[in-house]
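Request: Show me your protein:
***
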Amino acid sequence: FPAGYCVITYILGVGDRHLDNLLLTKTGKLFHIDFGYILGRDPKPLPPPMKLSKEMVEGMGGMQSEQYQEFRKQCYTAFLHLRRYSNLILNLFSLMVDANIPDIALEPDKTVKKRHAVLMCVSWQPAALDHWQGIMTHVTDGFRGHGVVSLRDSMAHRYHL
């Protein structure tokens, strides 16, 4: 699930992503709330291209873990699959230009162009993968090498387990 979440929120340009907008059901499934910012709008002046927090990576066992490496593979796979359907995705955005959606109405002529660029439609697959790897590196550079304590250890300490 986290891979799909990261890729689709990147492609749709969903902004204002933080852990308070990511909830957990009783069955352990994650779901999102608060989609007040889409198509690249964000209350932060320089938002990351994709939301992947240190806590999310810790929950996968850290950047060197097998789970995190699987997450990265799933992100690449999801991005490539969605690129295959870029014409459909872009046509759907084209149909929404006149739908009075505030984030589209701000720049209706740029809405489809921005999603076209995000999907790397004119690039060959290797270039698109390089682009995605750059995004992953960009969002994780902020918490590399800081002696990250695992989420499990942190919770055990906090609740005296």
Q: What stands out?
A: The chain has eight helices and two strands. The CA atoms of residues 94 and 112 lie 6 Å apart.
